[in-house]
Amino acid sequence: MNVYDSHRMALMLENMGYVETLDQHEADLVLFNTCHIREKAAEKLFSDLGRANLIKEERAAEGKKTIIGVTGCVVQAEDEQIAKRAPYVDFALGPLTYHRLPEMLLKIKRKHAETLIDTDFPPEAKFDFLPENRAEGGCSYLAVQEGCDNFCTYCVVPYTRGAEYSRPVEEVLAEARRLVATGTLEINILGQNVNSYHGEDAHGKERNLAYLLRRLAEIEGIKRLRYTTSYPADVDDDLIACHRDLEQLMPYLHLPVQSGSDKILKAMNRRHTSGQYLDVVARLKEANPKLEMSSDFIVGFPGETDKDFEQTLDLVRKIKYIQAFSFKYSRRAGTPAAVMENQVEEKVKKERLDILQNLLFSYQEQFNQASVGKVMPVLFEQYGRHKGQLIGRTPYMQNLHAKADESLLNHIVDVRVESATTNSLSGKVIL
Ligand code: SAH
Ligand code: SF4
Predict the structure, then answer these.
(1) Which of 36, 173, 228, 415 is deepest in the core (most CB within 10 A)?
(2) Using a 6 Å cutoff on CB, does residue 338 contact ligand 1?
(3) pLDDT, mean of residues 357-363
(4) Distance, CA 258 to ligand 1 centroid (Å)?
(5) What confidence score (pLDDT) does residue 131 get?
């Protein structure tokens, strides 16, 4: 979601005459788009800001002005700390107000002494105020839903991104058509809780994610569709049927489970048990037998015992995820779990994370190894590390590099997989 938001902000700045630079010494404006989901992500901002300020001072000595701005969820949660710890920050905008970036920059250009902050939850939808989206390559994100009403007890999202909001169907389709017209072949539709999508159609009727996917699949030129991230309890029959019917819908689904223990899932306020989760996965796989799964896990949630953790490992052994993201529970101020009494020791969290990741990596590697010898369609998205090489993704989101001519960038090409590691594949283009 932050990659998508950053892209939309970059397009706004481009309209104002800004040009992107990768050298901070050259930058008149430095913008940090931030994440608040875990403590580590938030803390990184303050060290990055310190470094940016040194450059700001160097430039000031040369008579150049530098504007430093912060956007994203850290602003929503820690606006006062930013102004206090980094008073040299010129402005801060929350994730729902970044459409006000041009207005903010105009204000900054007039004189100001303190950090200007805008953390509104505005009644207007920011999407109505953004310049048209444009593809950056063959693969694009498209946000269709934002915010979350689930209130998992560990999570900041409902507080930082606010209540659930779904963009109208026609607006989404129009953005998708623009992305296709500017070169996109694959669209990954985004939402914090994307399968609770309930946008209005042209007649004011609420439509679900399955409807939206079917309409997107009708757009000529869209070769691949994905959606991220889904909530297990909101996977309905309609959505499952899409995995059977839509050939563009890739056979890979990120469906976070967080834990395999029902006791912990309940304490997390997740609206599903591990049994219900397994049942949803079974039904999805029945709809498309080629479907493979990915997930998010949290270890060391308050009250998690060795037995609970074992149940998480058991679930992983059953599903054999081909990729996954796993995290140590991070205590976030303002969330219910932060003040639960039975917090798990850091050392135990670390041990559990190591064990879980080893198990997850073993399945990931097994899947990658099993790909060797197969021919897979790969969408080449970027240049490889070596000259004459391109990197792309298989339908299963595996990274694959191959010797390939530049002209194949942003194209889908058949590749025979020749070797595999835990994290990537390498192969030979078949023309
Ligand atoms: N809406 C999605 C995920 C949003 S956040 C869902 O419900 O699955 C992305 C991931 O960050 C979560 O799936 C969770 O695994 C992790 N996460 C969120 N809060 C966390 C916390 N306090 N500590 C550790 N991991 C956390
Ligand atoms: Fe956070 Fe996802 Fe739970 Fe919403 S459903 S509160 S975004 S983890």
Answers:
(1) 415
(2) no
(3) 98
(4) 8
(5) 87
